[in-house]
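Weekly puzzle thread! Below is a chain. First person to post its structure in token form gets bragging rights.
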Amino acid sequence: MQLLTAFYHSDTLLIALDSVILFAVTQNKISTCESTYVFTYFDAGDFLAVMAWFANFAAWSDPVIRPIMHVLFVHQNYPAQFGHVARYLTSVQDFRCTFISRLPPGVDDGVELIQYLPRGGAGPTTHPCSQPIENAVWHSHAIYEALKARPELRPDLIVGHSGFLTTSFLKELYPAPLVNYFEYYFHTSGPDLDYRPDLPYPDLNRLRSHVRNCFALLDLETCNLGYSPTLWQRNRIPPIYQPKVRVIFDGIDPAIWHPQPGTPRRIGDRVIPPGMKIITYASRGLESLRGFDIFMKAAAIVCQRRADVLFVVVGAEQTYYGGDMAVTGGHSFKKWVLSTGSYDLSRFHFTGPIPAARLAELFALTDLHVYLTVPFVLSWSLLNALACGATVLASDTAPVREVIQPGITGLLTDFFDTEAMAGRMCEVLDRPDDYRHLGRNGADMIREQYSLDVCLPQMLSLYQDAVRSRGGRPS
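Winning reply:
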């Protein structure tokens, strides 16, 4: 009776009581008389089982008595979209976090890193449409085998990136609930696939899009909850699954990405002379999907109109998305673009990939940052630039419009209209004071809506709800 009384006076019991009564009814362990519940068939074992259920639920719901929670993150790469979340959970919430990826094993800021190594994948004779499935199966099976070899691991929650692999195999190892990150759901026409009529788009790519969604659909079916970083990305998911998927951005780290007034006007060892304007462009890869060729055409027009501009281009000479190689004949898209146009390369400074701290300094000192993309996954670089207070000119495409409000947090321009784009660049350089408020507003918006301080608690709430959806902390 004392044990029952203790649970009765717990706030957690009041939250969970209806669920436990329902559990008891379904097990034919309880009868009802109007508003009174009578535990008519409970023996000592039944009573202890329900009390254990109470304890499991209370352990997660009550931060005072909650034991250490163990979250397993699953991704091809580290830290990717999950590393900062894992570090937050270990350092702030006292969680135990394990991260499995292809990277070497070890420990990073309290996060245990486990390596998996696929033993195969799509080959030269694999049909192009089945290549995504073949690769995803090999990755998912390798993850399963690597974790099966660690029987002491008993995660309470599994969080995985859906698309490159599936977390569904892990249901055969653990009773833990699943949370999946749904970054992109492919459609066979529109947005990224045939948005650029100036570049060829083979019919096979359209067929391949159907297959690329296979594992996303599998995870949408098997996950307890999911999330996407923008509303536009979430809304591409079939409507029947959208109620399971929340909109939570990955989070921008204000310790790195913030305004830095008085940043020296230099790019690496190159000192920028007084009066020289800087326009920046940054992308993971210099590719068509992020409008690298469009930017270069607009920049060439600006170069013809004025001599006081240096264009700083950040990114790898590599294509990460799309089929640029079909256009370039095997050359890098950067090399192809430069070979098909007339550019004064003395007006351009190509940095290649640079560390985040250096990129933040660049965003803080630029006179204008240009961000271009077809309708596709929104780049972190756009939000990073805004967080640093940069005045941003971006393509008028979704999901950019979720972040850029014209005249308030930035400027929008037609993706294909290089003349208009160049004109806008010159306007900002001619009258910088008229546009400086855009950078201030953008930095405020990122801090208030997209910073880690805002996004991480949302992520934690998602994880808690996923665990509760399984009836409390798994044993």
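Puzzle host: Confirmed. Bonus trivia for everyone else. The longest strand covers residues 277-285.
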